[in-house]
Amino acid sequence: xxxxxxxxxxxxxxxxxxxxxxxxxxxxxxxxxxxxxxxxxxxxxxxxxxxxxxxxxxxxxxxxxxxxxxxxxxxxxxxxxxxxxxxxxxxxxxxxxxxxxxxxxxxxxxxxxxxxxxxxxxxxxxxxxxxxxxxxxxxxxxxxxxxxxxxxxxxxxxxxxxxxxxxxxxxxxxxxxxxxxxxxxxxxxxxxxxxxxxxxxxxxxxxxxxxxxxxxxxxxxxxxxxxxxxxxxxxxxxxxxxxxxxxxxxxxxxxxxxxxxxxxxxxxxxxxxxxxxxxxxxxxxxxxxxxxxxxxxxxxxxxxxxxxxxxxxxxxxxxxxxxxxxxxxxxxxxxxxxxxxxxxxxxxxxxxxxxxxxxxxxxxxxxxxxxxxxxxxxxxxxxxxxxxxxxxxxxxxxxxxxxxxxxxx
Length: 409
Prior knowledge:
Layout: E1 4-12, H1 19-27, E2 34-35, E3 49-51, H2 64-67, H3 72-87, E4 101-106, H4 112-124, H5 134-138, H6 142-151, E5 157-159, H7 166-179, E6 185-192, H8 196-203, E7 231-232, E8 234-242, H9 243-248, E9 255-264, H10 274-288, E10 295-299, H11 306-320, E11 325-327, H12 330-333, H13 340-354, E12 356-357, E13 374-375, E14 381-382, E15 387-394, E16 398-406
Parallel strand pairs: 3-7, 4-5, 4-6, 10-11, 10-15, 11-13
Antiparallel strand pairs: 1-8, 1-9, 2-3, 6-8, 9-16, 12-14, 15-16
């Protein structure tokens, strides 16, 4: 069994696409939620709120041939992957293409513009927009496949299209591939592009915020006055490596990925299950071979939905007790779905390295039905901890838990 470390990070978020920019937004307590007037064309959609990535541009050196298979979600993922490789000092390294490196990555769906084009064919019998790459842009594993093709990877590809756990399962399954000696290196994470259809899906469940005139005030994870989630977009990719390989090449190590677990509720397709949430955290602790008392911070899923917030926090209390610090970055970035596990992992990793974790903004009045925990508010919290946990929970009853260990040597 091999130890697994993080040696590179690349990401794109609505708050920024490098750590100094993202940290500045977190420190300022500023969220990226805005009103989407273009959604007024959908009168049955109650929410007009989202957290889009506003300043992303396709790198100028990308060719038309490279771009033709990529919708926006793949562009975000591939750009993050190339940044992670560069951050790890692996750009141009022969191990990237000799089979040593694979990829585990996912999104909730592929690019929805192409899904629309196929739907047009089914509805009208014809479409002028479909071409040879339309399906490749639409398919659920478009992010993983495009990363592999763009970078010339010949290792394994693990697609993780599992809604809100796509990114965390990508990281977790990459961890397992390295831990059990199947790969030496992996690119791992997730991505999501913004589409009103995603907001519609949650809107139908009465799970979206409809405070359309006050975007800065939402979402409100764990707050008794929450009125629902806000969808967002972005991407996050980590470079994971076998510790021996990383040491041999003199790599800079961020943290060790010490534990991972995933399980399923087996009960309801959309209603979370407190018991299996508790179990997945305990499984991750066992995988890391540590006690709950060794964890100093939990990065919560914190979507600002009633059932989700309550089940998650009660499960966390049952594992760690009432003094565990917890916060949710969805209060800044919205719910980036396929990307959230990777973006939240990024913030957890940097939080451990800097000894500071961001607060949950817009949390003013704790929901008394949530579990008793140390909810971080205000200006954030300085915490010196060797271990931190990051959790995600998805439709379909899919649960994930990751444990990172600070790297001091």
